[in-house]
Structures are given as C-alpha cells and as structure tokens.
Amino acid sequence: MILDSFNLEGKVAIVTGCDTGLGQGMALGLAKAGCDIVGVNISEPTETIEKVEAEGRKFVDIRANLMKLEDIPTIVDRAVTELGRIDILVNNAGIIRRNDAIEFSEQDWDDVMNINLKSVFFMSQAVAKEFIAQGEGGKIINIASMLSFQGGIRVPSYTASKSGVMG
C-alpha cells in the first residue's frame, strides 16, 4: 500500500516548539507514522503529549530554552538515554518580535536570531554528530517561513533569520 512508504515505525523524532500550531501538527503526524517523539519546549505541551500518547507512541517532554546553547547536549543525551536513538530532527521552534525597523532593538534582534537561526544550526550539528555515532544517518528538517523571501517592514529579524534557514 502507498502509506507503507511513510511508515516510520520504531523511529525517534526530536521536534522543537511542538506545544502548539505547526510543531504540534508535525509531532502528531510523525507519531501517526510510527515515531516516538522528543518534544523540546519552553512551556508544557500537555495537549501534544496527550495526542501523541493516544497514538500509542512515547513522548519525552524536555523543557529547554534554545537561546542557551548549553541546553542542546542535554536534549540529545536525554533523547538517546530515554528512547535509544535519534532518527529525525525537526527544527521548528521560533519567535517573532514586531517593531518598525528604525526602532528595532538589538536585544529583540539577538533573541530572534538566536532562536530562529543559531539554535537551528547548533541543534543540527549536535544531532548530526549523533547520527554519525549511530552509523545509520538520519533526517534534519528545518522550518522556514514565507517571510523568508517576502520580508516584512515590522519583522526585520524574523525575515533575516528565516532567510538564513532557507540558505
């Protein structure tokens, strides 16, 4: 059957920013395809946990602030310790700050760039090292935005960060 091509039974996916919205939808879709999920969020993803577990999959809840790079090794270590491996990384976490470009603060710029671009690179780096150690490779999915190429006069750091993800 065609759906067999999408069977991810026994795989483990890390999904950042999966407490609501697109991240929650991706975590649930991966769970429906057979993945156990490692959710990385600032707040508790209660609804996501319930939905993933209703699919018969495991959910490891990791609370982390991706602005702090020192949290990244702990995320990878917990995923491997609790679920045995990592097969997929979905870099979805993101923030947006709005202000006129001529009024935009350095702090707002740095916060958005750190979450939306810097953490994407360093999460990818850490998980890629684990893929190499496992000897089986894996998949990394980085989530960008339509604003990557459309821009926006009140979201300069968001546009720049998502353009960076698009490469």
Structure notes:
It is a single chain. This protein has 6 helices and 5 strands; from the N terminus they run E-H-E-H-E-H-E-H-E-H-H. The protein is an alpha/beta fold. Helix 2 (46-54) links the parallel strand 2 and strand 3 (59-63).
Short description:
With 167 residues, the protein is an alpha/beta fold.
Looking across the biggest beta sheet, what order are the strands in? 3-2-1-4-5
| Rg measurement, Å | 16 Å
How much of the sequence is in beta strands?
Answer: 5-15%
Class derived from helix and strand content: alpha/beta
- The overall pLDDT average reads 95
Which spans have pLDDT < 50 for at least 5 consecutive residues? none
How many beta-strand runs?
5
Number of helices: 6
CA-CA gap between termini: 36 Å
- Amount of helix: 40-55%
The major beta sheet can be summarized as: 5 strands, parallel
- Quick one: overall form? globular
Reading the helices and strands in chain order gives EHEHEHEHEHH
Keywords:
alpha/beta, five-stranded parallel β-sheet, single chain
